[in-house]
C-alpha cells in the first residue's frame, strides 16, 4: 500500500473559531463538508469535526485518517496482516474509504480520491 499522508482528527465545540485557528497555523484554507450530522473542515493535515456527541463519540475512536493511492490495495494489505474491516470500502463525496481495526486495536480510516 502506498501511504500518501495522514490527517489528524480534532473534535471541537466551536468549529468556526477552530477553523480560524487552524487556518492561521497551517496557512491552508478550510475545505468544509458534512458527514452525517457532523460538520467537518479539512485544514492542512487536520480534520476538525463538530456535531452531536453521539456521532462524535464514534468518530473519536478513529485515531487518524490515512490517505492512500488505492483503498482496494489497502484492503488487501490490511486483511493480510489480520486487520478487522469495520466499515467499507464505500464511496464518499471525494473518493472511497474504509475503517479498519489493526491487530493492536488501533482504528484508522483509509481514504483515496478515486470516485466510485
Key attributes of the depicted protein:
116 residues; VOC family protein
Mean pLDDT: 92
Which range does the strand content fall in? 35-45%
How many helices in DSSP terms? 3
- Measured between the Cα atoms of the first and last residue, the distance is 19 Å
- SSE string: EHEEEHEHEEE
Largest sheet: 8 strands, mixed
Shape: globular
Strand ordering within the main sheet: 2-3-4-1-5-8-7-6
Indicate the low-confidence ranges by residue numbers: none
Helix content: 25-40%
Any idea what the radius of gyration is?
A: 14 Å
Organism: Streptomyces hiroshimensis
Protein name: VOC family protein
InterPro entries: Glyas_Bleomycin-R_OHBP_Dase
Written description of the protein model:
This protein has helices at 15-26, 53-59, 71-80; strands spanning 3-11, 31-35, 38-43, 46-50, 64-68, 84-92, 95-101, 107-112. The protein is of the alpha+beta class. The protein is globular and about 40 Å long. It comes from Streptomyces hiroshimensis. This is VOC family protein.
